[in-house]
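Researcher: For the annotation table, I need structure tokens for histidine kinase. Please keep the output clean. Sequence:
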Amino acid sequence: MPKSTSQTSIRKALISAVMLVTALCLSLSISISTYLDVKEQKHLIVDKLNILAEIIAFNAQVTVLFDDRKTEEQRLKSFESIPLVKNIHIYAIDEISNKPVFFTSFNAKKTPPVPLRVDNIEQLKQAKITEEYIELIKPIIYEGDVKGYVYIRGGLERLNAYINKKILIDIFLTLFVLILVYFVARRIQKRIADPIDQLSTLLQDVSKNHNYSARAEKTNITEINMLANSLNIMLTRTQNQIERHKNDKQEIKQLNQSLEEKVNQRTIALREANQELLTTLERMHQYQNQIVESEKMASLGQMVAGVAHEVNTPIGLGITSSTLLRDKLAEISQSFEQKTLTSSQLKRFIDNGVENLDLIYRNLNRAAELVSSFKRVAVNQDGELNSIVNMHELISNVMLSMRADLLVKDPNVVIHCSSQLMFETKVGPLQQVLQQLLSNSVIHGFRDNQNNEIEITVERNESSLIIDYYDNGIGVDKSIKKRIFDPFVTTKRGEGGSGLGMHLVYNLVTQALGGSVYFDDQSSKGTRFIITLPLTQASKP
């Protein structure tokens, strides 16, 4: 609920503000003036008492010196004509104890005597001012020696009366000024508030009756005239806008009538166009299905051609060797039956047989390896369970297991991985991925064993593990960059490359490990693969 705020009128606010400011200024001015005046009056009284005390001390030099108390008492009576003086004490210095003792005193009429101040001489050397009295002590000095002291006490009755009288005058003056200011404020308020009331009445009329032709009149106040001019401009623009709106409504009405006719015509045309579009879309779906089937058949043909090429070569060599071996065996058998077989002929047959059998074995073994590679690509490896492994140790173990393969090209392998980095994953597929990447660098990436480098960077964030694999080899040929993860794609066809390595990496990362692998085809030098593996619930901190 919005907070309710108290409301007030500009009339009350103006009068209240003027009266408050005036009262504060008067109070502050009168207070400061009274304080300074009272302070000055007290200084004058203190100065007057100092002068009287010095006169008394000067006159008392002889009487104190000659112990003439009567003369001094007669002289002190002359102070009865000074209302300011209430009490006077004269103290003489005792020659034996060298301490001040009472000598004589004066008390004004209707003024009780005061106790001796011989113990307060040091404190009263500076004037002491209370609410009703001022006290001070002056030394009596004769030829440089202190012969006694004069204590004088003055009353502040006249000062207090003066202060009270001044306060009354200030109060009456304040009331008079406030009344005068009130009437002046009323006059100013009328000059300001009346034009504002007229503007308010005008706005109410415009709001209720929509009388936008009304205009505000000029006044004798510049600011209100500016407001009235702005209001008149706004009313003029509003009136013009309303007239334009009426004209626009009429035009819109006419346009709507013609628009309805156009909409009907366009609707008919659109219906016909939609029918044509549906027919076209149906035809496109048919073409699309044909294209998909064609691509499937092309991919299947490429895969079959790759399998046939890879398997036919070792099988063909095996068949050729076995045929040659059978022919040699027939010759030996014929020579044996005819009893013309010689030892050299038998020796040559045995040597050729061993070579042919070795060739058959190697090619059959090659065919078996190819079939095993096909099975690794196709077999689902989801059956392996996850386990927590130290990534640095895993990479080090893979490097150790491939030490013999790496020595061929002797690369400098740099591993950027924390020795404390633990990760839950399927160890077998991840090892195969790393082994395949290292094997690709050795076989395809490096030409010789000079200045070869492999850099493996492993980092972990809140949601995944990122493996950045990079080698500074010759890179990937442009012709296969876009198809690097397809099966049977290789630049080493006929040189021992089956084209299944990166396809195997892709399947292991995306299916067995549930991650993604990215090939940086924009790199100008070397080869970079970025593998991202998701964190399991147990791997999360």
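Researcher: And a one-line annotation?
Model: Residues 222-337 form the longest helix (116 residues).
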